[in-house]
């Protein structure tokens, strides 16, 4: 006899991004080099201000911090927003609006739990960041999805979202710049989403963890924190994981001007006591330093995007909208079942001793069967390796069609 498992536990969805990991291990065991385009772990160094802060951190006791994060970090986080002009014409963001969390992931948990009861629903636009489903599942929350299309760059259709609302939906949850599409929601669409949230009394949760990862030179993606009139209906998810190339620091934030929502999230956060103390000190140093390294890394990702898109578009039958932000894109491949093709690449294929690991996009969709011919590509490899990975994809498609 083993200890009982909850139904919720037995039904927990596995991450579609990690599902093929054992096949990649198998390829490596056969001596094949695997280019990983499947996972969004930035390969660039963590910003130097954070590394310096870790090196010089010294205290007698690593104590808990306040549950909402250190006062210094919350103030610096708010200052960074205001310095980026994020609130637009609205009142500046203050430290009181910023709750420090254990990565953006915990901010998602807190805000979903604060907005929804068991049996309520969140609405997403598919393809979507699948951890929204993982967090929703943990909390007994349903996921309602609205389709977007590869053919128009995964643009959000606010009218379609409104038409698909059900009485159970409490929050609309979107990422911009988006994972897995790289699409950036423009200001008019954000304003329409804000108006929808107010009109239908919903919470708009905008996941802005890739905020600086925009390639049109604007420096920062349009933020939900700047939607006039929707202040009480907006919560923003933030994180240093991508911005500072510091995924392991586990520091993020929930930002909202809605006091009641904020206070509920703080009460939930009290149950986990504290976000990490040492990492908060390191993030404080990075937020107070100039963002030069951040913007230098964005320039690197932009070059990679351009190289990748150009190479992908030379492969017959591949459709890949050019992503405006983040470091992902969805490509439609000339195969019926991208999952089977991704397995083939790892199990039965190599090109001069190399192959490529991609994330089948089906797992980023809620609708069964949607996205079957698509893959998500994360461009977190240097340009030369990216090009070799695309060579493997092209040759793999050829071998797959022939075999
Ligand atoms: C869209 C999006 N939101 C949130 C997260 C969570 O990031 P973290 O918990 O590392 O801050 C990620 C990580 O990949 C992401 O892609």
Topology:
Elements: H1 7-10, H2 21-29, E1 33-36, H3 48-56, H4 71-83, E2 98-101, H5 103-115, E3 121-126, H6 131-138, E4 142-147, H7 158-164, E5 169-175, H8 187-199, E6 203-207, E7 234-239, E8 252-255, H9 259-270, H10 277-288, H11 292-313, E9 328-332, H12 338-347, E10 354-357, E11 359-360, E12 374-378, H13 383-402
Parallel strand pairs: 1-10, 3-4, 3-5, 5-6, 6-7
Antiparallel strand pairs: 2-8, 7-8, 9-12, 11-12
Helix pairs in contact: 3-10, 4-10, 5-6, 5-9, 11-13
Bound molecules: pyridoxal-5'-phosphate.
Total of DSSP H or I helical runs spanning 4+ residues: 13
CATH level 1 name of the largest domain: Alpha Beta
On the 0 to 100 scale, the average pLDDT is: 96
Give me the strand/helix succession: HHEHHEHEHEHEHEEEHHHEHEEEH
Q: Which ligands occur here?
A: pyridoxal-5'-phosphate
Keywords:
single chain; 403 residues; alpha/beta; Aspartate Aminotransferase, domain 1; Aspartate Aminotransferase, domain 2; 2 domains; seven-stranded mixed beta sheet; three-stranded antiparallel beta sheet; 13 helices; 12 strands; 14% strand; globular; binds pyridoxal-5'-phosphate
């Amino acid at each position: 006899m083993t200890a009982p498992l909850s139904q919720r536990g037995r039904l927990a969805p596995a991450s579609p991004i990690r599902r093929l990991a054992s096949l990649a291990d198998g390829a490596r065991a056969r001596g094949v080099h695997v280019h990983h385009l499947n996972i969004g772990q930035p390969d660039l160094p963590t910003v130097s201000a954070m590394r310096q802060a870790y090196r010089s951190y010294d205290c007698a006791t690593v104590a808990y911090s306040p549950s909402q994060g250190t006062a210094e970090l919350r103030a610096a986080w708010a200052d960074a927003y205001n310095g980026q002009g994020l609130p637009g014409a609205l009142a500046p963001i203050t430290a009181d609006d910023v709750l420090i969390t254990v990565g953006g992931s915990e901010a998602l948990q807190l805000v979903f739990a604060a907005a929804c009861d068991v049996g309520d629903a969140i609405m997403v636009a598919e393809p979507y960041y699948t951890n929204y489903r993982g967090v929703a599942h943990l909390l007994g929350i349903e996921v309602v999805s609205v389709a977007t299309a590869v053919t128009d760059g995964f643009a959000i259709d606010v009218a379609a979202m409104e038409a698909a609302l059900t009485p159970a939906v409490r929050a609309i949850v979107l990422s911009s710049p988006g994972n897995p599409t790289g699409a950036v929601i423009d200001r008019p669409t954000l304003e329409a989403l804000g108006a929808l949230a107010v009109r239908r009394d919903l919470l708009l949760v905008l996941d802005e963890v890739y905020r600086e990862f925009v390639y049109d030179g604007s420096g920062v993606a349009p933020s939900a924190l700047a939607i006039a009139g929707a202040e009480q209906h907006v919560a923003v998810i933030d994180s240093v994981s991508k911005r500072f190339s510091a995924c392991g620091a586990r520091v993020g934030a929930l930002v909202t001007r809605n006091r009641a929502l904020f206070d509920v999230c703080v009460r939930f956060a009290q149950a986990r006591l504290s976000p990490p103390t040492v990492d908060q000190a390191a993030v404080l140093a990075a937020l107070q330093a100039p963002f030069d390294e951040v913007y230098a890394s964005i320039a690197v990702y932009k070059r990679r995007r351009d190289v990748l898109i150009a190479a992908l578009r030379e492969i017959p039958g591949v459709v890949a909208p050019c992503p405006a932000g983040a470091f992902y894109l969805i490509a439609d491949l000339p195969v019926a079942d991208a999952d089977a093709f991704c397995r083939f690449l790892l199990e039965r294929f190599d090109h001069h001793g190399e192959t490529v690991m991609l994330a089948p996009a089906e797992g980023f969709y809620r609708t069964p069967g949607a996205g079957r011919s698509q893959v998500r590509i994360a461009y977190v490899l240097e340009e030369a390796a990216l090009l070799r990975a695309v060579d493997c994809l092209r040759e793999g498609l050829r071998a797959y069609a022939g075999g």
